[in-house]
Design brief:
By secondary structure, the protein is α+β, with helices and mostly antiparallel strands. The protein has helices at residues 10-14, 93-98, 103-124, 145-157, 170-177, 196-199; strands spanning 47-52, 76-81, 164-168, 203-207, 210-214, 227-230. The strands form two sheets. It has a four-stranded mixed β-sheet. The mean pLDDT is 81.
Length: 236
């Protein structure tokens, strides 16, 4: 036999609670994974060997005189080994049934955002190893147009392979364009060698044939470290 107990919240208990569509935590721009070279492994492969060859020198010829000197290919190799990342999510039957939207879609987007952030921060963690570990500039310096131009000049003088890009925190990029007359990216399209579909939302401008991008996953403040690098400097 059921016993009815009166409560002061009877009317409130009889009302339905509306649950709106889920909102997602905003993610920072994450362009770095699309600014480095992409490599594909075939089924069963776990690593890839990347060869690098040196320069040859052409010599002047003298008619009737044999060319004695020979050139060396100068090949060196770098072995790249893959690593795996993943996420574990548990959805109960009760949660899946009671939610008013597809929880698999919600979780799928969250997982996709997490993997994208992981890839981006993994590339950012390589910045300190670029240029043989030698930094350009000093800690706490602003990325003024003059300093940016000096970094680009260094890259060109040291023959960074094209395409070359600059990546920094949005606050640092703001300092670059402050009080300058840089041509907006709208009238200065993304240079050749980059995927416009993947990078146009993060592209800011081009200076001396070098594209500049912003990345919010870079640590902000005086500890912020950006980079100038060739697409072939790293692989993914």
């Amino acid at each position: 036999m059921a016993i009815q107990t009166a409560t002061t919240g009877q009317l409130a208990n009889a009302q339905r609670i509306a649950i709106e569509q889920a909102r997602y935590t905003a993610e920072h721009s994450a362009p770095c994974v699309n600014l480095v070279e992409h490599m594909r492994l075939e089924q069963g492969e776990k690593s890839v060997v990347v060869p690098n060859v040196g320069q040859m020198t052409a010599s002047s010829l003298t008619d009737g005189v044999d060319l004695v000197a020979s050139e060396d290919i100068g090949m060196t190799t770098t072995t790249l080994t893959t690593s795996e990342v993943g996420l574990k999510v548990i959805l109960t039957d009760k949660l899946v049934r009671q939610q008013n939207e597809d929880m698999f879609r919600v979780v799928g987007r969250q997982m996709g955002d997490a993997v994208a952030r992981k890839k981006d921060t993994d590339v950012i963690s390589l910045f300190s190893a670029f240029n043989g570990g030698t930094t350009l500039g000093v800690s706490g310096a602003s990325l003024t147009l003059q300093n940016l131009g000096a970094c680009i000049a260094f890259a060109k003088a040291n023959k960074f392979p094209s395409p070359v890009s600059v990546v920094h925190h949005p606050n640092a990029i703001f300092r670059t364009v402050l009080n300058t007359t840089l041509i907006p990216s709208l009238t200065n399209p993304l240079p050749h060698g980059f995927s416009e579909d993947l990078l146009r939302d993060f592209y800011k401008f081009v200076l001396n044939q070098v594209a500049v991008f912003e990345d919010g996953n870079i640590t902000s403040g005086v500890a912020a470290v950006g980079a100038i690098f060739s697409m072939s400097a790293a692989g993914w």
